[in-house]
# Entry
Amino acid sequence: MKNILYFVIGSFFAPSFLWAQQPSLNSPNVSANALFLYRNSNFASDDLSTTRNGIDLEEAEVAFYSDVDPYTRLNILLSLHPEYEVNGTKVEKSFVLEPEELFVESNQVPNVTLKVGKFKATFGKHNYLHTHVFPFIDAPLGNTQLLGDEGLNDAGVSAAYLVPTDWFNEITLQYLQGEGENEEFNSPTPSDGVGLIHWKNLFDLSEALTMELGGSYAQGKNSIGGTTSLSGGDLTFKYRPIVGGKYHSWIFAIEYIHRNLEQPVAGARSKDEIAEAWNIWTKYQFAERWSFLLKRDEFQADGADSTLNTNALNNGHISKTAAAFVFQPTEFSSYQLEYDLTHGPSNSKGDVDEKAIYLRANFTIGAHPAHSY
Amino acid sequence: MTFFKYFIFTFIFSLNAQASLKVMTTTSDLAALTKIIGQDHLEIFAVAKGTQDPHHIEAKPSFMVKFHNADLVVSQGLELESAWLDPLITGARNPKIAQGTQGFLELGSQLNPLEVPTGVVSRAQGDVHPGGNPHFQLDPLRMGKAALIIADRLSQLQPENKDEFQKHAKDFKTEIEKKTKLWQKRIQETGIKEIVTHHKTLTYFCSRFQIKCDIQLEPKPGIPPTASHLLDVIHQMKEKHLKTIFIENYFDDDSPQKIKTQISNISVDRVPVSVGGEPEIQTLEQLYERLISAVEKAAQ
# Structure
């Protein structure tokens, strides 16, 4: 582990020619991304809170990708991030290095992209985004509460079929190991996997306006022996005018996730935890390098029972409103100033409203692959 | 009998339609050039429109569908499309157009690119293209050579139409060479020796018509104008008595308008730098003619 850490740190400080060079047979494309975050939250003022106020390295990512041969492409994405743990009367900080994604993809199969390895599952719209392209500082409540801190990210196989229609019409089937960090699918039986289907459609309503419509469903055994089913839908409109598109654009997105988690009761009918979440957000680019974002996020859980499930959610309602300005000097750096107001479970002082202000700086070097539309 | 004739006509027409090559070009200029060579034998679609900055096109999945059905991709190369072409080709799931195959043609490196950086290249220098300036579409003679390269590739993909492709390409090259001589004469007559541009888009045009284009409103390639850099531009324009600013049509003209308040009698023209950059610019010849006229107008 230490060797990998030294390699990653070494890569950051490697001479500039490493980043400037053209990909060759002997060297894969290499890129790195660093996120720095300043946080000031009334919920993080507690000395024993694992969410810390102040400035911190939020995450660093190093990616390597290249064709293996005419048939396959290898992608390796390592993530380095701090982790805080309460130890008696102290909060201890350590750094965690882990493979965020590590998979091979097919190059030569007509109509289908086959993938095997560890990857972010194609569930919904937000789950497969990397942290540095999140529109807001935090993932939506539905993703953090229902898919876990790291999202639905697991080892498995995937096939994404481009259906031959006039519009973009893709059906993705995935089978995941079900042993990731997601207790909703983390069955103790090794042979229990997770099946997932995702359907993505994108329509050009005009040359400037697109509409994306997606649906997802996943099912598998959970850590307490029941079945968890997740379903989701997403709708995104993107507008960038053909004339003046460098200076103005607009995004409107909505995503919904529903989770049904069976909580088996010995000798009785299972008691299900039902949770659902939706978020709606918009981004308006009002100048070449400036954008404004606004989000409303809602989450509701019922039927969760901590006597049956040690990882049970808190029953009740959480809502969040977020507003942000983004300044993007170039495509390789950005600064985001964000204010979040979250209404939900109380902290140790009995506050139910978390007010947080963030400033995030985002930097990318190297041959970073383009993000999905 | 009439029905039979109709059936035969439809059958032959559909065979002919199936035989046409589907070509994706990254820019509208390459689409216009490829159309001249392939004419009715091709179905052509350009990703970047003439009013869009070709460095920053969004990789829309709907483009992937078009790439999926393509037989050939023609790109400018020299990293002009590096931000968006790879995901489109990968997402297309079409092995025929993978880089390095017959279905992928990159022109820039074959056309003796200008401004190839020497020494260490870093993003501290802005959006520098390690292979050289990719905006060769504004040099008519390089586009003449590009026509021959495209014709060769089309001939490989559709050998039955080889003679036609080669003839159209050679005719275009001969014609554009003749016109370039006339355009060079007209530019010479204007007496204009230097112009200011927003980005280094007009480098090849300037080189071909012996106009200096060393001053840009961008402090570094891809970096929007800053107040201090504009002051420097104003100082240089005054010192050299420069009176002409060409703004590529996908940039706004806020910066030149600021300069205009500081230097009297300068001309600012928002010029198209690609086919389709203005509604009436539908061919490469019209594009070049528009730019030549813009220089002439600036001289008046």
About this structure: The longest helix of chain A spans residues 2-12. Chain A has three helices and 16 strands. The helical segments of chain A are 2-12, 16-20, 141-146.
